Amino acid sequence: ELQVGVSSEWSRGRESALPAAHAIGGDLGNKDSTAELNGSGKIPNRDSGIDSPSCSVAGETFPSEEGAEQKKPSMAGNPGEMEPDRKGTKPSSMEQKRDSTQDDDSDIDEGSSEEQELPECTEPQKLFNIANELLHTEEAYVKRLHLLDQIFCTKLSEAGISPDVITGIFSNISSIYCFHGQFLLPELKTRITQEWSVNPRLGDILQKLAPFLKMYGEYVKNFDRAMDIVNTCMQRSSPFKDVVQNIQKQEVCGNLTLQHHMLEPVQRIPRYELLLKDYLKKLPEESPDRKDAEKSLELISTAANHSNAAIRKMEKMHKLLEVYERLGGEEDIVNPANELIKEGHIQKLSAKNGTAQDRYLFLFNSMVLYCVPKLRLIGQKFSVREKMDIAGLQVQEIAKQNVAHTFSITGKKRSLELQARTEEEKREWINVIQATIEKHKQNSETFRAFNSSFSQEEEHPPDSSVSTSAYMQIQNKLPRTIQLPETHQACFPGWCPFLAEQV
C-alpha cells in the first residue's frame, strides 16, 4: 500500500510526474493536486502508481513502470470512467474503505477478476447457442440462394441468355432455394425464437426435413460442368459477361464472384453435419431429442459425403489450373480425369558427359511431364520437353560410379537417367511412380473386363422374361452420351462436341 504525505518530496515528485500524467490523461495534470487525494491521504488506485513518489526520481526506471504506462492510455480513453475525477469530486466512502483494505491494483487487474467471477455457461445454454448459430447461418445461406436464383438467374434470362445455358449453370437451385426459404428456415425460426423455452429440440425438425437434402445430389454432380460453362461464357459471350460483372459489383455480392456463390450449396451440407455433431456432444443421453438428432446426423452425413467429394474434386481442378498456367498453356491437362500426384525439382544426367542439369517433373495419374525451368523474374514457369504415358512406363534404381541417388524412368520413346538430392527423395520418387504405374494397370484391367462382359451381353441377349428386367437394369446404369442442344451455340460456338454430357 502506497502512503503519500504532503511534503516537499511529494511536490518534487508531482512536478516530475505531471508531464506524463498530462500526456496520458489530457487535462488531468492541470487540476488541483489535492483533488487526487482521498480521505486516507492515498492516491486513487486508478492511477496505478504513475503519480506516486516512486515515479518522481528523474531518469530512474523500474520494470513495472513501462507496463503501467502502457496500460494507462486504454483507461484514459474512456471518458465515462474519468469524468468524476475531472470534476474533482472526492471518492465515496465505499472507495475509501476499499483503499484502506486493498492494495492499489490496476483497473485491468480488477476487470480480469470480474471476468473470472462470471458463471460458466450451462449445458442448456450451450445447446441454445448451437441452435442459434444454426438459425443465423441458415438466414445468411437463404440470402445467398436468393442471390443465385432470383438475381443471377433472372438477370441472365432477361438478357436473352439461353434457358439451357442457365439450367446448365444453376441446375436445380430453384428447388433448393424453395426448400430452405419456405420450409427449413421458417421451422427453425419458429422453434428457436418462439418455442425453445418449452420445446428445446432440433432433431425432430432436421429428421423430418433431412431426406429432402437428397436434392443436393443433382446440384453437386452438375457442379464441375457448371463451372466449365461459366468460364466459357465469360470468355465467349459478351452479354453473359456484362450481366455477371454488373451483379458482382453490387453490394449484395460482397465483392465475390458468381463462382464463389455457386460453391455455397456444395459447402452447406458439411456445415450442417459439423453443427449437428457439436449439438449431439452437448445433448444429454436421456434427452428425448437424442434419437431424432442421431437419425438426422446419419441422413445428413450421407449427403455430406457427396458434397465433400465434390469439394475435393474442385481442389484437384484448381491444382490442375495452377500447373496449366505454370506450363504456359503448352499442355492441355485441365481434365477431370487427370490428377496431380507429385511434382518437384530433379537433376537429369547428360548421356554425353554425365553432367547434371536442372529439370522438373510433374507426375499425374496418366502421364509424366519432363520439364525445363524457364528463367523468369516473377513466378516459376516451365517448358515441357517430354510427355511420357504411364502405360508402359518403367522405373528402376541405377548405380553409377561417383554419382549417388540415381534412378531411371523408361517410356515408349525415351529413357531418362535422373538424380535426386537425397537417398530419401530418390526412394520417394521411385515408390510413388511405381505405385502410380500399378494403379493404372489395375484400372485398365478392370475396364477391359467390364467391356468384355458387356460385349458378351450384347452378343447373347437374354431370351427369358425372367432375366429381362435384370438385363434392362444393367443397360439403364450404363452411361449414354448426349450432345448439348443447338441453343448452346449462342454461348459455345464450336464447343458442343467437347461439352458432351454424361448422364
UniProtKB/TrEMBL annotation:
Q: Which Pfam families match?
A: PH, RhoGEF
Signal peptide residues on this chain, from the entry's feature table: none
Instruction: Please give the GO cellular component terms listed in this UniProt entry.
Output: cytoplasm; cytoskeleton
- Keyword Repeat present in the record's keywords: the answer is yes
Location of the region described as Disordered in the Swiss-Prot/TrEMBL record? 1-123
Keyword Zinc carried by entry: yes
Keyword set, alphabetical order: Cytoplasm, Cytoskeleton, Metal-binding, Phosphoprotein, Repeat, Zinc, Zinc-finger
Q: Where in the cell is it found?
A: Cytoplasm, Cytoskeleton
A biological process (GO) of this protein is: cytoskeleton organization
Q: Which PROSITE patterns match?
A: DH_2, PH_DOMAIN
DH domain sequence ranges:
126-310
GO molecular function terms noted in the UniProt entry: guanyl-nucleotide exchange factor activity; zinc ion binding
Question: What ranges does the record list as Polar residues composition bias?
Answer: 1-10
What's the protein name? Answer: FYVE, RhoGEF and PH domain containing 3
